[in-house]
Amino acid sequence: MNYKAIDAGVDAVHKVEIPASWSNPAADPAPAELKGRPATVKMVKELMEKSPGYLHIFHGLVERLFFELQDQEYHRILYITLASTVEEQLFEQIKSLVEENPGKYGRQGLSSELNYSGDYLNRIVKKFTGYPIGRYCQKILLHKAKRLLIETDMSVADVIECVGFKNHTHFYGMFKDEFGILPGEYKRVHGHRA
Q1: Fewer CB atoms inside 10 Å of the end CB: C or N, the chain?
Q2: Can you say how many angstroms the Cα of residue 53 is from the centroid of all Cα atoms in its chain?
Q3: Cα(93)–Cα(132) distance, rounded to whole angstroms?
Q4: Domains of the chain from N-terminus onward
Q5: For residue range 123-151, what is the model confidence (pLDDT) as tens digits?
Q6: What is the phi-psi region of residue 42: left when phi exceeds 0, alpha when psi lies from -120 to 50, beta otherwise?
Q7: Is 148:163 a contact under the CB 8 Å cutoff?
Q8: Burial class for 123, CB neighbours closer than 10 Å (0-12, 13-18, 19+)
């Protein structure tokens, strides 16, 4: 192992342990414990080696890191302000879970995930949406189905299967109640055009 110092811009210099393989560009793959974070590994490398042009490379890597952070698979954004009540924060968590995992959560699933009683969660959702949890989750699924009908070439049957409805007749009725039109007609009018 090599030891190099990074000047942190403060009165102290921090020592960082660097694997010997990092000094060889051909052996650049990050160690197993750093896999999945190549931008951060390269950023540290550039700051430590200080080769000509390292600041330009570092700035580019920072931009790449921000780009990677935009991928919503790695994080979840909850909109909470200092004035948010506990109920508002809880509803944002519920909303986030339901929207990110359509069809996965119902009243009982949310209750076990968030460690609150189903009745309390139901009151929270009803307070902010006007719907009980079950209906709110159905509305999320219907809006996902609507988006798939518009943005993809999937058939109505494929969309129904994708959003997790088992009963096609029930789906057709709910879709018509929600949007005032049957899914097939909606796809013909608004559907994806190549």
Answers
A1: C
A2: 34
A3: 16
A4: 2-69 (no CATH), 86-133 (1.10.10), 136-190 (1.10.10.60)
A5: 999 999 999 998 998 898 899 999 999 88
A6: alpha
A7: yes
A8: middle
| Whole-prediction pTM | 0.55
How many Cβ atoms are within 10 Å of 166's Cβ, its own excluded? 8
Nearest 5°: phi and psi at 41?
Answer: -65, -45
Per the structure block, which two tokens stand in for 83?
A: 């004035």
Residue the block writes with tokens 């090599």: 2
Strand partners, 18: 2
- Write the pLDDT tens digit of every residue in 46-78: 888 888 988 888 888 888 878 777 776 666 665
